[in-house]
Structures are given as C-alpha cells and as structure tokens.
Amino acid sequence: MTKEISADQLMQRIAEEYEDLSKQLKVIAKYVEEHRQTLVLERITDIAQACEVQPSAIVRFAQRFGFSGFSDMQTVFRDAFAPAGGNVNNYQKRIRSVIATQDTPLSNTQVTQNFITACQQGLDELSQALDPAAIDKAVELLVKAENIYVVAVRRMFPIASYISYALQHTAKRVHLVSGLGGMYHDQIRSIRENDLLIAISFQPYGKETRYCARVAAQNKARQLVITDSQLSPLARNADAVLTVKEGTAFSFRSLTSTISLCQALFIALSYRLELVIEETRDAGAYDD
Q1: Please, are residues 197 and 212 in contact by the beta-carbon 8 Å criterion?
Q2: φ and ψ of 153, to 5 deg
Q3: 3-class SS letters over 160-194
C-alpha cells in the first residue's frame, strides 16, 4: 500500500464504495465486515469457500482497496484485532460443537444455559466493539431532536416499543411508528428537518423500516440507525450508526445486546438532559 490505513478506515471506505462493487465483491465485503475480528486467523481458501467464490476474487477485493494482495489486507486486521480476538470464543461454533458431541438430547436446563451463554458472549463483544465517537454522536442527535420517531418491525419491534416507552420519561416528543392498520405512510409523513428517526433493523432489513428511512432522508430529518453491519442499506444515509452482533444459539438470535444498547442510550440521554437542567439552575442562582 502507498500509505497506512486502520481497520476502521478500511471498513468505512468499504461501506462508502459498497454500492459500486460487483456482486462477488459485495459478498466478500459482507463477510469481511462480519468476521473482521477473526479474519487474521483464516486462510484465503477458507474465506473463498465461505463466500462461494474463487481465491482470486479475494485477491481482487484486496487490490480494489489498494492492497497488494490478501495477506497485505489481513495485516490491517491483525494489528487492530489480534489482541482482543484471541480471547473471544466463537459462540456459534461452541454451541454447535456441544450439540454434536452429545450422546443424548440436552435437558431444558442445558438448552437454557447455552442460550444464556450466547447472550453473555454477545454482550462481551458489544462492550469490546463500542465506538465512542458513534455513541457520542447518537446521544447528541437525541439531545437536539425536536421529535423522535422510532421504527422497527417483526423481531426488532419489541426493541422499538421499549425505547419509545423509555424516551417518554424525558421531555422529548416521541412517536412509535407501529404501522398499526398498515399506516406506516401516515405515521412517518410528518417527520421534519429538526426531527430524528431511530431505525432498528437487522438482516434481511424490513422493507417498512427502509421505507421510513427513505422518507426521513427526503424530509431532511436526522437518522440514528441500530443495525448489524456498516454495510446495511440503512447505514448509507444515517447520521450515526451503532452496530450490534447478537449472540446466537440453536439458530436463534437473542435481543439482549440490542436492548442493552438502547437502555444505555436512554440513560446517557437522561444524564445529559439532567446536566442541562443543573447548569440552568446554577446560572439562575447568580441572578439578582
């Protein structure tokens, strides 16, 4: 490479150029984004097999972003993630391994324990991967918003319902875009320039949530997106993106990390708003 680049800078560039990539390179981009903490441990043939492409496509992907080859690109992730990555167990492989090695079916308690372990692992990864700048930006968007609209569908709808409930405890005007009666169009159409849309969506990314994001962009509203990848279609027009990799056991993804992140955002917002109140009181104390 002509100059050094960090893993975060590389992922940002991949996200920005994602739409211009070929179909094969898009598959590789998603794999890299989802496995960047373990990429340093994988061989080019393993990645090619997982992406169902030839190893030469992996090389083309690396060269597309200015590297001489796969090993050159891999070095970026080795420098960024090797220390923490060595301590992170792959919960999916671990749980599947447990199933494969059992002579008899697991008990209800064992299934429960395995799922809780997966949730704990997801929280550990969330804590390690937190982006302070993204968190600061998210809270700032919440503080400045005149109206806050919240949308999520299907599996993520309970998260939207909770964060709407929590935000009602502040002075903010909060609107849950529930789509009740098929009224997504009507519930989102009033969003405006000084408002904020919180869009929560994971693959395969609900069409209703994507529609609300398009309306928000057209009306010049700000967007806070909580999703599973920087390559998510919702991330493209977002003002702040928070990514979450949920724990998975027995092919079921938990909601633990996502709802914990939303709770943390609410607490951070409440703290900021209370600081403003205290500053106002302190200033008033000097009035004659």
Answers
A1: yes
A2: -130, 160
A3: HHHHHHHHCCCCCEEEECCCHHHCHHHHHCCCCCC
Give the CA radius of gyration of the chain. Answer: 21
To the question of pTM greater than 0.85 for the whole model, the response is no
**Each residue's pLDDT tens digit, 40-50:** 778 888 888 88
- Tokens at 230, concatenated: 């920087």
Element (H, E) at 198: strand 196-201
Strand partners, 224: 198, 240
- Cα 31 to chain centroid distance, Å, stands at 15
**Options 3.10.129.10, 3.40.50.920, 3.30.70.20, 1.10.10.10; CATH of 7-85:** 1.10.10.10
For residues 168 and 154, what is the distance between their CA atoms, to the nearest angstrom?
22
pLDDT in tens, 189-211: 999 999 999 999 988 788 899 99
| Torsion on CA atoms 246, 25, 80, 93, rounded to nearest 10 | 40
C-alpha dist (Å) from residue 216 to 213, 241, 266: 5, 15, 22
Q: Is the CB of residue 242 less than 8 Å from the CB of residue 135? A: yes
